Amino acid sequence: MQRKTFNRFLMTSAMALGLGHLALAQTVTEVPFFYPVAVGGPITKVVDGLAEEFNKAHPGIQIKPVYAGTYQETIVKALTGHKSGQPPVAAVLLSTDLFTLIDEDAIQPLDGYVKTAADKAWLSSFYPGFLLNSRTGGKTWGAPFQRSTIVMYYNKDLLKAAGIAKAPETWAELAEAAKKLTKKDSAGKTVQYGMQIPSTGYGYWMLQALATQNGAVLANDAGNAVKLDDPKVIEALEYWVKLAKDGVHPQGVVEWGTTPKDFLEQKTAIMWTTTGNLTNVRKNASFDFGVAMLPAQQRRGSPTGGGNFYIFKKATPAQQQAAFQFIQWMTQPERAARWSIDTGYVATSAQAYDTPALKAYAKDFPPALVARDQLAHGVAEFSTHENQRVTKALNDAVQAALTGGKTPAQALKDAQAEAERILRSYR
Amino acid sequence: MPPARGKRTTMNQKPITAWLLLLPALLLLLAFTHLPAVATFIDSFYSTPRGSRPAVWVGLENYAVMFEDPVFWRALRNNLWYAGATIPLSIGLALLMAIWVNERMTGRAFLRLAFFTPTVLPMIAVANIWLFFYTPQYGLLEQISGALGLPSHNWLGTPSTALGAVTLVAVWKEAGFFMIFYLAALQGLNPSLREAAAIEGASRWAYFRRVQWPLLMPTTLFVLVNAVINAFRTVDHIIVLTRGGPDNATLLLLYHLYEVGFKFWDTAYASALTVLLLLVLGGVALLQFFVLDRRVHYR
């Protein structure tokens, strides 16, 4: 390159950068916002559309939505940014990553922004079940956004054929129904399982549902102590393992991703999975299906799941305030209702279910309300300090028991020992 | 260069020109390979900084943790098994395919394309295809085994078969890539060698063992180095197929490292694991270049 041209090029770019920067600083507050996509459908379009709508209504603020991959990839990007001094201002991350984010000193509690009576009404409008994973140490750190819970999908046609009138409501009824719903061919090979609970990736979530139904609480509110080898938890895992041993549930580890497909292919009559699959199942089921709350043993119960809004610490106060405004705007009843219809996630406040849009949708499609009704029995999703590491210990235990490597009691005892080792330093 | 300038100036400018030409590559290598490696080595002697707690010098503690971590040993064992299976299998298969499609026959182009297709596909796509193959009850494997009257099997969900299943995917993916190198080498062989062998009355096997195989040695070395690196480097399919499960049965070193570094955020321990992985790979590469290289005949 000619030296003159090069110099001129350098100068112009420097000037452009400098001027651009000045111009922006004077007029609008930029808020980079990271979000993940964890269910099917054109989610990025919906989020980008919402952000644009917000920007139009708020000329002083420029929300910049960035699709950052899965939940796991999004937290990697956000925390890497935090460590290098350039985190997003707002992000949607797993509600269970709360302690990880606090330990990294990455996020800011929301309490400081909740000033007026309207703000307080906004914060208390969320279902209490969803706020459980947002609060610790007397502070609220996240606003519920794309939240889910586990529900039971059942194939009405197959149930009817097996002479079962309604969805099973207790463990005993479920085991009984699963037995009736299991079909074998002449060679003794199972062609249709009664039920299945996936055990890859989210095995701990499913076990927590069973343990909750059996009356156990896995972790304390401070997230620094767990009781994984509680006899009630062992019983819960034994129930699961026995279903597989009895041949009414597939052997070995059941893949999370193919579980909805197994259900749609009528290879299993009942499945447990997230409400987030509702729209997918509705679109693709060639048979009549129903959605029910998970069955009860001592009680009903299902952990919540999904993501919350967080505000990051390393941002200017103006940016943080703008992010808070955006979060409040995004969680208004009309928008929460629209989000729920578009995705299948549970709307996060009672007001959202009172909106005409969601009322009309639920009237047309009643299963959309099951997850909300189950929230009355909801518990906080398993979350501790070093959450992913403790969760892995629990996931390994579930898989070891299901594949026959260890007895449920031994597997959970090992997981407890590992969790204890990790959490000791947080007490 | 103006011709008026003296010879000495040209001589003096030569190394500078050389360095300038090397500079872009050198800078990139330094910035993205060497500096991070050195930084990782240093980090492995410090604790993981968390929030307001900065990193402190802990000496060899991260390495001690590593040696006591049963999951690490499991990952190492799995990885050695995986490498031991994928390397010879993928190279053997590549050689076989290359020799086959090197023949003059109808449909040769189609065969070459078919063998090479897995290489063109991204690993994530490949893994998703295989996820369907392995799906219990209605997956492709199940349909075949069902038609033959064999019992149903959960390939990825059973610890005894999961590692074998992911190994097979890697072999299938890599063989086509290595085949290209062998095919190129085979095409470069002098056809008079084959004629000479034919005149001597050498069998197909003798020709391969005495002529083709020795002449392919440089390619084999190159492919071997790549295969070894890939055996420790490719984990994309693990993420799609099993995520290391069931109960760590398919956990490979790099996936374990990723989990420790970016899921558990224990960056110090992850650094120690990285250093070990670098040492192992570096050691193997040196061994290959200095020991095996001597046995390779270059023309």
From TrEMBL, chain A:
InterPro entries: Bact_solute-bd_prot1, SBP. Residues 1-25 form the signal peptide. Gene3D superfamilies: Periplasmic binding protein-like II. Its main location: periplasm. GO terms for cellular component: periplasmic space. It is found in: Periplasm. Keywords: Signal. Belongs to the bacterial solute-binding protein 1 family. This is ABC transporter substrate-binding protein.
